[in-house]
Amino acid sequence: MSDHLNKRRAGILLHITSLPGAGQCGDLGEEAYNFIRFLHDAGISVWQTLPLGIPHGDGSPYQCMSAHAGNPALISIEWLENKGWLQRTGRAEVSYEGYGLVISNLVRKAFQGFKELATGTEQEDFVSFCSEKAYWLDEFALFYALHKKFGGRSWNHWPEYLKQREPKAIREARKRLSETIEIIKFEQYVFYNQWQELKLFAEQHDVLLFGDIPIFVSYDSADVWANRQAFKLDEEGEMQVVAGVPPDYFSATGQRWGNPHYDWDYLLSTNFRWWRERIKTQDELFDILRIDHFRGLESAWEIPASEDTAINGQWIAAPGHALLKAIKAEYPSLSLVAEDLGVITEEVEALRDDFSLPGMKILQFAFDGGADNPYLPHNCTQNSVVYTGTHDNDTTLGWFNALNDDEKHRVYEYLGFTQTQMPFTLIGTAFASVANLAIVPMQDVLCLGSKFRMNTPGTIEGNWRWRFEWDQLTEEHAGRLKHLVELFGRRCE
Length: 493
Prior knowledge:
Blueprint: E1 9-13, H1 30-42, E2 46-48, H2 77-83, H3 99-117, H4 120-132, H5 134-149, H6 160-163, H7 167-176, H8 178-204, E3 208-213, H9 222-226, E4 241-245, E5 255-260, H10 264-269, H11 273-285, E6 288-291, E7 299-304, E8 314-317, H12 320-330, E9 336-338, H13 346-354, E10 359-362, E11 384-387, H14 396-401, H15 405-414, H16 424-432, E12 437-441, H17 442-445, H18 475-487
Parallel strand pairs: 1-2, 1-12, 2-3, 3-6, 6-9, 10-11, 11-12
Antiparallel strand pairs: 4-5, 4-7, 7-8
Helix pairs in contact: 4-5, 5-8, 16-18
């Protein structure tokens, strides 16, 4: 167990896009700093976010164009203005879908200002950034430039010579698109600088940043286009099998994610270089990392690409032990958390426990079945992370209100018929547990109902857009949160 995870702590789950602000989504500007101040004042020492990558049209941060690149829509334009690289201008109201393009156009203008006005040290810093990140940045910048050129079409629908990465075509594309490529690299330079400044501020306020690594990557990504041999694709670059999960609590037909599966034999032959590079990037951004769908490192659900649902798939073994051993050898102090939800076997539990990784305990799942339910507080372990719910759950208030009277009675019977109202009843239960880390979605702190949930698994409309406003956070909410942190010994400075 890492130093970060061996103390009693409390955390809040809130994605960057959910921060308040004037733009169409939250960003890395002043409101992010205000949120860290709020966490510090409440004694909360962990801020968990969702993945920071560039999503596709549905907005899901779990289907991104790169395992490394940051989402330009999260860039603070005020930061660029304060640097003097961008003239202060009013920004037009645009749709959520078009917001990323507006930001990119402003960054493009800022790049011109950077070239004209940045100090010599700043210019050198940009060159150093491009050199240090070249292991992923070069291919990503070319991919993203081509993606824009071809109107957002997936790389398998590009001209054959680019789809198949013919060397001459790649060289010519780099030359022809050199200006766009340079701007894309600058965009990432800005993102990473803003993030590192925020991370330093969080450190100064005793707040750890907790990130999320989707186990799979999007098919339409720089990773798959540039590292095709690392994935199960045919000679034409098409997927024959796709990732997902079988029918479970969330969906009767399972979830067909559509991601490509890894060619583990190839990855093993390289001592998992692609994975180790991926971890390197995230380790620089975060203090703690969650591996989403951890069970896929032991075995993953393979679905024929021709199937419309996830029902007709099969479990295929993965060399998770060898992978985690390679990661641990290179990053011995890395703080990892295993998202061990869903269909979990003894083999998955053994893999988690062999590396002493904390698993997840979701209190909304605790009250089905009997006293042996693994999510009930009395079954939690110290080396685990307890949640009231996650970004995939309903809000706790929404979940509780949807229960029938018998189910509500069982919940309150277990909790001792407390007079505290939901969702703070469950927040208190999470904080009181023996688990070292207790995480609460911001919606629960604000006592919000179902219409404010972040994501509904199995659906593609209306997700990932929830944002909070400071006026939703009453003094009572903040006071109760701080009281529970101190009552259950979770203030960690």
